[in-house]
């Protein structure tokens, strides 16, 4: 109870309250602009967190990402252009409702069920994380090695591109993590005589470059979205309670699917939305109505994407393994602020964890009034010319990269990773897998080397401990599954095994 009251006191600080409000408005605006993802919105905030207290810094990440995931529904419903990848799953459905004169219902469903999903996902975080933390206190470097490797393998398996390209992206990220002198031998690796690379490549410039600069480069090559017609909206939340009662099972199913997918490393809100929309159509009593402006898919997918956002923090806080690209950025902020992820975070900094839970709930509650205001002001926000928005984003990337370390080389890194991210996306290589490789590369190397030192270079202890053996089996299974599925499909006279 003392820790809970201390958590409320931490959240009630003026700087935290202001951070929640400002980052919420910022997330709503950036998420509603077509082509600007929630990950990019979060990445641009990182330099500003450098000057904030630890709780205020984490609050900006939580609030901005939750708002951006929802507000991506606005251009999807009004322009048929998803604001974020998570909104793409049900953009056609929402736009069909708009053409039927039900724009308020479509946008209200996105707002209402996103808020519910976020709160349910937060409750899953509150319940799961402490229980898993107790178990994780018994983990050694052997378990952490297999856990990190399993996280990387899962990230490649759930990628929407081919597994080969996903693994290639992950290996590029691991190669980037090898740069510098942060290795047991203390020898420079891949520095090419550049002094600035001796300390390694920090994840933050890489994240900002890959997710923000590359977005600006893509926007330069794509046509601007069509202008949105001026219109007056009626009541945004009218009829949402009726939808809640009518589609309560799809809503709960979406929440559960979102929580499960959120915990998987590298999956994230966009995959949760796609899977939930597909499941909604598969189990619906009226599947023929999907695609014609039917709200059932919006209910389930909307509840799923925000639920996955909160549950994605479970592996991030416990093990330092990102649940998605947003929590990959959050891990960097946590380390920067001294809130190092791990099971001891729940015992030694329990009040900070309660503060984080409270921030999640507050962000999803204030999403409703702020979201209504955002929907009503959408006609003005969406008229912002791309030629004016993109240079501002590019400027923020450069200034933010310089501010994090007062080092001009960080600006060069941001530009370089922007080009890398742009080329990878153009050729179908998922940048999320590369980012996870960058973030988790040092953890993977350190746990592996530490384990070898403890075991006197023997590999047997990697498989002898009970939990380590289970994690090893899961990791090897995840590694061999694509090859096994391909081999079974090649058996003569046998139908191809679905993935």
Label the overall shape: globular
Helix content: over 70%
- The tally of helices reads 24
The biggest beta sheet is recorded as: none
What's the N-to-C terminus distance? 47 Å
Count of extended strands = 0
**Helix-strand topology string:** HHHHHHHHHHHHHHHHHHHHHHHH
Mean pLDDT: 81
Structural class: mainly alpha
Unreliable residue runs: none
Q: How many whole angstroms does the radius of gyration measure?
A: 22 Å
Q: Tell me the fraction of residues in β-strands, as a range.
A: under 5%
Please tell me about this protein's structure.
The chain is mostly helical. It is 72% helix and 0% strand. The chain is globular, with a radius of gyration of 22 Å.
Secondary structure: elements and pairs:
Elements: H1 2-11, H2 14-32, H3 38-49, H4 54-71, H5 73-79, H6 91-99, H7 103-136, H8 141-157, H9 163-177, H10 203-221, H11 240-246, H12 248-263, H13 268-283, H14 295-311, H15 313-319, H16 325-336, H17 345-348, H18 350-376, H19 378-381, H20 386-405, H21 408-426, H22 431-454, H23 461-464, H24 466-489
